[in-house]
Amino acid sequence: MVSKRKYILTVVVVAFVAVFLTLTLGNVFLVEIGQKVFLSKDEYLQMREMYEKYAKQEKVMQIAQRDFLYEADEEMMLKGALQGTLKALGDPYTQFMTKEEFDALMQDTEGSYEGIGVYITASDDNKIIIVSPIEDTPAEKAGLKTGDKIIRINGIEYTADQINAAVNVMKGAPGTSVTLTIQRVLPDGSQNVSDVVVNREKIRINTVKSSILADDIGYIRITTFDMQTASDFKAAYKTLKNKGMKGLVIDLRFNPGGMINSTVEITDVFMGEGIVTYTKTKSGEIEYFKSDAKSEDIPIVILINEGSASASEIMAGAMKDTKRAVLVGNKTFGKGIVQKVQRFGNEGEGIKMTVSEYFTPAGINIHGVGIEPDIEIQLPEDAEGYGYEFYETDTQLQKAVEILRK
Length: 406
Prior knowledge:
Blueprint: H1 4-23, H2 25-28, E1 31-33, E2 36-38, H3 41-67, H4 74-87, E3 95-97, H5 99-110, E4 112-115, E5 118-122, E6 128-133, H6 138-141, E7 149-153, E8 156-157, H7 163-170, E9 177-185, E10 191-199, E11 201-204, E12 208-212, E13 217-222, H8 229-242, E14 247-251, H9 260-271, E15 274-281, E16 286-291, E17 300-304, H10 311-321, E18 326-329, E19 337-344, E20 349-359, E21 375-376, H11 395-405
Parallel strand pairs: 13-14, 14-17, 17-18, 18-21
Antiparallel strand pairs: 1-2, 3-20, 4-11, 5-6, 6-7, 7-8, 7-9, 9-10, 12-13, 15-16, 15-20, 19-20
Helix pairs in contact: 8-9, 9-10
């Protein structure tokens, strides 16, 4: 028989242990005792909510594994669920990327890859549309143009929500080829669909080209903004300056954009102290990208057109708002949103997500609108090309030179 003193001591010890578990471990961690697991009410409610939220997904996977005629790979279904989650947001610039897709994006940012040399995006009708072919690449040599829509690749149809898969197919070993089915709007408004065979090459993107034109007018073309562009631009500018340059044409035509920091660094060379651009998130957080007081005092004309997008529009907008340059050409593409790229998980995957919109110094967001030139002038339909190599038929460049001569 248990003594009264011993009984009271046992009750006190049990009560103490219960209070300890409730006030400490029970509120933070689940407690395992034998074959049972005890957890706090908050933890239980959280786990139940999690189960109920994803129960449908688990049930669908179970049905697929049980009834689907072919193999139902669980890992592939889970990956597809991640891709579908971001796709459901309805933003063509937001996506979940596999390791291969993430590595390819990082490679493009560095400035080289193997493929055909074309910048693409999603069109309003869920087609893959060419923003611009990269200069001196197979895509340009094959005659691909801004506004062309890629309907099929090697006979297989691809839509904008399959853009990553399309990129992977177009990339490939140098010396091989890929057949693109192109839908093009002709000058009379009709549409033409044709197959174009493009040979793949090792693409090293030389983003800056420069030359001295007549009357000591300098010319620098920027094809895209990557990690090397700002330093390459400064080197080209210094060379032209040493040759006695008196005015400068900066050609941003068919430049689809790239890295914000790169375009801000180049704009800072000419703008003087002020705001180049600022971005604003959904929560209202604002980040300013500024230029310092030092600036090169030289007349500038910037050439733009419908293929000038994103980072190109940041530069054009800043120089226009501050009246630092005259804009000549056609209205720009109109991409005024910013994507953040980040690694996801431990398997090399990634997420690219639209996280903010950017504004010009005057507080204008040009997304879906574009930037109007100060002087609008069309490039002739029969022009062989654009840039200093095609000066005789490049009416936009001729106009820029005329302005600088004055």
